[in-house]
Each structure stands twice: as C-alpha cells, then as structure tokens.
Amino acid sequence: LVSLFMSDLMVGLVVMPPAMLNQLYGRWVLRGDFCSLWYSFDVMCCSASILNLCIISLDRYLLIISPLKYKLRMTSCRALWLILATWTLAVLASFLPI
C-alpha cells in the first residue's frame, strides 16, 4: 500500500503541475527538453500505480484461496521483491523509449 501511495503521490506532485500549466496555456510553456522527462515520469508513475494495484490484487487473492499457507508464501522478502519488480518494470517501460 505504501508503494501505491508513493506512485499516486508522485503523480500529484510531479506529473500534475506541468499538466495543469499545459491545460491553462494551451501549449507547453516549460523548457522543451523537460517535456520528454515529464512524459516519462507520467508513464512511470501511472504504470507503477497500475502494477501496484495488480500486486495488491494478487496478494489478496493468495490470502483468500489459502489463508493458512499465506504467511509461508508471502514473506516480507518476497513482498519487497514484488515491489522492486513493479518499480523496475515501470521505470523500464517509461525511460527506455527516451
């Protein structure tokens, strides 16, 4: 949940202010090279948010189908690896195209 919070917070703090300026002025008013960086952060944060929701759904599914084995399957180390994989996939999907 903290990872989902961080991705949504980054959308609100990093992505939305330049998007608001873009909507207010009807054109890109910031430096031109900042546009591709902003777009990459937009894709990264939105992808991380969606992937975090998928991981949370998988976690809840595992808890429901086998509640007695859940503690053995979902250790804190595995949870950390899932979070790292989520953010790594989001970063690769957003910053590699630049």
Can you describe this structure?
With 98 residues, the protein is an all-alpha fold. It has a domain at 42-89. It contains 4 helices and no strands. The model has no long low-confidence stretch (mean pLDDT 90). This is 5HT6R protein. The chain crosses the membrane at residues 37-58, 79-96. One of its GO terms (molecular function) is G protein-coupled serotonin receptor activity.
Question: Notable features of this structure?
Answer:
single chain, 98 residues, mainly alpha, 84% helix, elongated
Strand and helix order: HHHH
The amount of helix comes to over 70%
Structural class: mainly alpha
Largest sheet: none
What's the shape? elongated
DSSP strand tally? 0
Low-confidence spans? none
Keywords: Cell membrane, Disulfide bond, G-protein coupled receptor, Membrane, Receptor, Transducer, Transmembrane, Transmembrane helix
GO cellular component, one term: plasma membrane
Protein name: 5HT6R protein
Main location: membrane
Q: Short summary of the structure?
A:
This protein has helices at 2-25, 32-65, 70-73, 76-95.
